[in-house]
């Protein structure tokens, strides 16, 4: 069975996918049609059900009960191309109650046991006893750390996969250890705590089900508020946790998306060296990972730029600096007389 990433125009797909979204709409002539988004662990694809090829015959109404969002669906569909993108023209559909949701979400390429060992090393390396016991309390609370460990770091922008939030946090901790010593007076261990708490609210803002849709409390409260409250509750549970350290860490969480004038949702402008440092560190990892993911997931082609990728709508240059004169065997051009002339091709990501 082909995966979403392997779909080709003209083929017939027959397999189980996760239905992320579902809606019945109307054509300009008033006929109903169904539109949805399906995915597996390799990617997502839009899908349509037309009432008929030449008039109304009730196909949408007949298939609509099976095409309910938030479930696995067995579909048989023709792969079409529309506006430069592939889509599924669904011919048959039925719910697949035996399929596990875990099958359909992308996962971190880093093994979870390795990440857990890395976190244990981070906790062991902390010299400040208050920071050490706070991070250890978080690690030991299964009700908090379990969802954090499994959550994506975002719905789509960066580290949008199972364990992505954990991976992002560890990456930030490495960056903090490398860069914080360049700024004497900066509390590097406070920054490291921020690496693990700044986005912790995303474990409840974003659903763990495939598609990573926003939860009701995520829409109403947002991850920044939920993350700040998590920090406050953990600090309050620890005997005599210093109020000033609590205040600084909560501020870092509330301000980590930068100045409020930038429009990214911070509850406060960064007003300490640690908060300012962390905002830019977090932004660096998110933006570079978005670029790297776009490059790695770009479809096979000779295009020099990646396709525009939701939601950032950026195209990245794929030609590598050392690759402008590299040769591709399948790009050799025959000379007159049947001999092959080597044609230089750019090395694409």
Describe the fold and architecture.
The protein is an alpha+beta fold and 349 residues long. It has 2 domains: 4-103, OB fold (Dihydrolipoamide Acetyltransferase, E2P); 107-292, Hypothetical protein af1432, CATH 1.10.3210. It contains 11 helices and 7 strands. It has helices at residues 59-63, 112-125, 129-140, 142-150, 164-179, 188-197, 202-205, 216-221, 223-237, 243-255, 273-296, and strands at 12-26, 32-40, 43-50, 71-82, 85-95, 333-334, 340-341. The strands form 2 sheets. Strands 1-2-3-5-4 form a 5-stranded mixed β-barrel. A hairpin with a 5-residue loop joins strand 6 (333-334) and strand 7. Helix 2 (112-125) packs parallel to helix 5, helix 5 packs across helix 11 and helix 6 crosses helix 11 (273-296). The two termini are 27 Å apart. Residues 325-335 and 338-343 have low confidence and may be disordered.
Mean pLDDT: 88
Number of domains: 2
Helix/strand order: EEEHEEHHHHHHHHHHEE
Structural class: alpha+beta
Strand content: 15-25%
How many strands?
A: 7
For the report, how would you describe the main beta sheet? 5 strands, mixed, barrel
Low-pLDDT windows of residues: 325-335, 338-343
**What order do the strands of the largest sheet run in, or round the barrel if closed?**
1-2-3-5-4
CATH topology of the largest domain: Hypothetical protein af1432
The CATH class of the largest domain, by name, is: Mainly Alpha
CATH architecture of the largest domain: Orthogonal Bundle
Report the span from N to C terminus.
Answer: 27 Å
């Amino acid at each position: 069975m082909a995966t979403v990433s392997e779909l080709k125009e003209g083929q017939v797909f027959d397999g189980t996918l996760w239905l992320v979204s579902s809606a019945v709409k109307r054509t300009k002539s008033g006929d109903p049609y169904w539109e949805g988004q399906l995915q597996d662990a390799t990617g997502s694809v839009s899908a349509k059900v037309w009432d008929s090829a030449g008039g109304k015959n009730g196909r949408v109404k007949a298939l609509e009960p099976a095409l309910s969002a938030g479930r696995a669906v067995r579909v048989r569909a023709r792969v079409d191309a529309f506006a430069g993108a592939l889509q599924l023209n669904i011919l048959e559909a039925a719910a697949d109650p035996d399929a596990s949701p875990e099958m359909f979400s992308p996962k971190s390429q880093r093994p979870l046991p390795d990440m857990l060992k890395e976190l244990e090393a981070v906790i062991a390396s902390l010299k400040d006893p208050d920071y050490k016991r706070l991070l250890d309390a978080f690690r030991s609370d299964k009700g908090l750390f379990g969802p954090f460990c499994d959550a994506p770091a975002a719905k789509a922008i960066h580290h949008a996969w199972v364990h992505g939030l954990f991976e992002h946090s560890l990456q930030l901790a490495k960056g903090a250890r490398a860069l914080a010593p360049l700024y004497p007076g900066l509390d590097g261990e406070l920054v490291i705590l921020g690496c693990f708490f700044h986005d912790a609210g995303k474990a409840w803002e974003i659903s763990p089900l495939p598609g990573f849709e926003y939860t009701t409390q995520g829409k109403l409260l947002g991850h920044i508020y939920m993350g700040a409250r998590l920090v406050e509750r953990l600090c309050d549970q620890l005997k005599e946790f210093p109020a000033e350290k609590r205040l600084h860490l909560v501020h870092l969480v509330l301000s980590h998306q930068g100045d409020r004038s930038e429009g990214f949702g911070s509850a406060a402008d960064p007003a300490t060296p640690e908060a300012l440092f962390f905002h830019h560190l977090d932004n660096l990892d998110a933006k570079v990972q978005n670029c790297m993911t776009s490059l790695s997931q770009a479809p096979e082609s000779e295009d020099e730029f990646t396709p525009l990728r939701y939601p950032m709508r950026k195209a990245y240059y794929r030609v590598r600096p050392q690759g402008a004169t590299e040769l591709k065997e399948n790009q050799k051009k025959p000379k007159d007389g049947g001999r092959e002339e080597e044609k230089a091709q750019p090395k694409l990501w």
